[in-house]
Write a structure and sequence with these properties.
Strand content: 15-25%
Strand order of the largest sheet: 9-8-10-11-7-12
Shape: globular
Radius of gyration: 21 Å
Number of helices: 11
Largest sheet: 6 strands, parallel
Oligomer: single chain
Distance between the termini: 48 Å
Number of strands: 12
Helix content: 40-55%
Structural class: alpha/beta
Length: about 300
C-alpha cells in the first residue's frame, strides 16, 4: 500500500512500462488496485518485486525522476548480495548518498557506484577502473559540477589522452580546439547532462571549466580544482606521473579508465596499470573497481562486454 496514491502513476511509468519491466525481469504478475499493488509469483521474486516498487516509490517521493535505466538498475541491485551473501542490499530504502547538479539529482545505480560516490567525497585522488558503461566518468563529472556550483572548488578540469581508438583519422582541419574536441566529446556530453548548455558555454569561456588533452597539463600546478582524467589506460607511465604530480592544494583528482581497453602501441605499458600498482593503498588515494555487473547503460551493453571479455 502506498500512502500517496497520486504518485503511483509515476512509479508505474507511462503505459505501465515500469510495471511491465519488473514483471518481465522477475517473472511475476503485478495488478494495480487503487493505492495497492498485488504481486503474484515465486516467493523470492515477489519479495524482490516488492522491494523494487518500494524503492521506486521512495525515489518519487524524494522528487527524483524515474527512467528506464533507473528501473533496470534497481532491479539489478535487488539481487546483489552483501556481507558474503548474508544480507541483501536494501533497494527499498531511499538512497543514502546522491549528487545534486543544476539539471538532476543523481543516485547510485549499483553498490559499486555507491562506494564510488563515497570515495569521490572521501579521497583526494581516486582511481576508477572498469568497463564501459559503468558510470566512472559520468559520476566524476557530476560530482565535479556539484562542487563547482557550490563553490568548494574554483575550476573543473577535464582531460584525456588524444589517442585514436584503433584507427587513423588523419589530418583534422581547424584550430587547436577543433582538432582535440572529437577526443573530448564524451566529457562534453556528461557536462551538458549536468548543466544547462548556456552555463557550460559561459563557464568554459570564463575558464571555470577547462577541457584539454593531457599534454596541456605539463608544467602546471592545479589548486582549488576538480581534475578528471578520462581514458587513462591510454597514457604512458611518464604521462601519468606528470599528470598526478599536477595535484595542488584543495583539489580532488579522479583517474578513470579500463585497463583491458588500451589503444597504446603494442608492447607499450599503460600508465594506468603502472600507477595503480605503485600507489594503491597510499593514504589519501582510493581505488574503486567496477565489473560487468555494474554496467548501467542499456542491458545489452553489459552482455556485449561480458561476451568480449569472456572470449579475450
Amino acid at each position: 500500500m502506498f500512502d500517496k496514491p497520486q504518485l503511483l502513476a509515476r512509479v508505474l511509468g507511462e503505459y505501465d512500462r515500469n510495471l511491465v519491466a519488473i514483471e518481465n525481469r522477475l517473472g511475476v504478475y503485478i495488478a494495480a488496485r487503487g493505492n495497492k499493488l498485488q504481486i503474484e509469483g515465486e516467493a523470492t521474486a515477489c519479495a524482490r518485486a516488492r522491494d523494487v516498487l518500494t524503492g521506486l516509490y521512495n525515489r518519487v517521493v524524494q522528487g527524483q525522476d524515474i527512467d528506464t535505466g533507473e528501473v533496470d538498475a534497481i532491479i539489478a541491485m535487488s539481487a546483489e548480495p552483501v556481507l558474503d551473501g548474508i544480507i541483501r542490499h536494501d533497494v527499498a530504502a531511499p538512497p543514502s548518498i546522491m549528487i545534486r547538479t543544476r539539471k538532476k539529482t543523481i543516485v547510485p545505480r549499483s553498490q559499486t557506484q555507491g562506494r564510488y560516490m563515497e570515495a569521490l567525497i572521501k579521497h583526494d585522488i581516486i582511481f576508477a577502473l572498469g568497463p564501459a558503461g559503468t558510470g566512472k566518468t559520468y559520476l566524476a563529472v557530476a560530482q565535479a559540477v556539484s562542487q563547482l556550483i557550490t563553490g568548494s572548488v574554483d575550476r573543473l578540469i577535464l582531460s584525456r589522452p588524444a589517442v585514436e581508438a584503433g584507427e587513423k583519422i588523419g589530418f583534422l582541419p581547424g584550430d587547436m580546439k577543433e582538432k582535440v574536441d572529437p577526443y573530448l566529446r564524451p566529457l562534453y556530453d556528461a557536462l551538458y547532462d549536468c548543466l544547462p548548455a548556456e552555463q557550460v558555454e559561459r563557464r568554459i569561456a570564463s575558464a571555470e571549466i577547462e577541457i584539454a588533452p593531457i599534454a596541456f597539463m605539463r608544467g602546471r600546478t592545479l589548486a582549488d580544482s576538480f581534475i578528471i582524467l578520462d581514458e587513462a589506460q591510454n597514457t604512458t607511465p611518464a604521462q601519468m606521473k606528470m599528470f598526478l604530480t599536477r595535484f595542488g592544494q584543495n583539489s580532488r583528482m579522479v583517474v578513470c579508465g579500463d585497463p583491458k581497453q588500451t589503444d597504446l602501441p603494442k608492447g607499450q605499458e599503460s600508465g594506468l596499470n603502472d600507477a595503480v600498482g605503485k600507489l594503491e593503498g597510499i593514504e589519501g588515494i582510493g581505488t574503486v573497481r567496477f565489473g560487468i555487473g555494474d554496467v548501467v547503460r542499456h542491458p545489452v551493453v553489459g552482455r556485449i562486454v561480458e561476451a568480449y571479455e569472456g572470449n579475450g
